[in-house]
Amino acid sequence: MTSRTLILILGIVISAFTLITGLALADVGYFGIFEPHFQSWGGAQVFTYLLILALLSCFWMKKDSHTSGLSAWPFIGLTFVADSFGILLYLFVRARKSGNEAIMPA
């Protein structure tokens, strides 16, 4: 996959996620997004799953930042307040910076 294709795909995903997030915020507000996760064990399981993925992504971004030359801290901070946006933007910026290199090292 070329860097241009990856950047395009990530741009589409970020745009779609921004639209969905904007609609959710307009409908229920910031804390309303989290509320359903505390109303049942199933919701708590999904919330915990997403939290684990976000934390693992932060560890990956920090480790990867040494090889990519990016500072991971702004993206880690964004991940703590806006979850997937931090991770998606890190991947987007990394893809733009890396040119034709693969996004995920083997």
What does this structure look like?
The chain is mainly alpha-helical. It has one domain. It is about 80% helix and about 0% strand. It is built from four helices and no strands. The protein has helices spanning about 5-35, 40-70, 75-80, 85-100. The radius of gyration is 15 Å and the shape is globular. The two termini are about 15 Å apart. The mean pLDDT is about 90.
What is the compact description of this entry?
With 106 residues, the chain is mainly α. It has helices at 3-34, 41-68, 73-82, 84-98.
Helix content: over 70%
Query: What is the residue-mean pLDDT, rounded to a whole number?
Result: 90
Q: Supply Rg.
A: 15 Å
| Tally of separate domains | 1
What are its keywords?
single chain; mainly alpha; 106 residues; globular
Task: Describe the secondary structure blueprint for this structure.
Layout: H1 3-34, H2 41-68, H3 73-82, H4 84-98
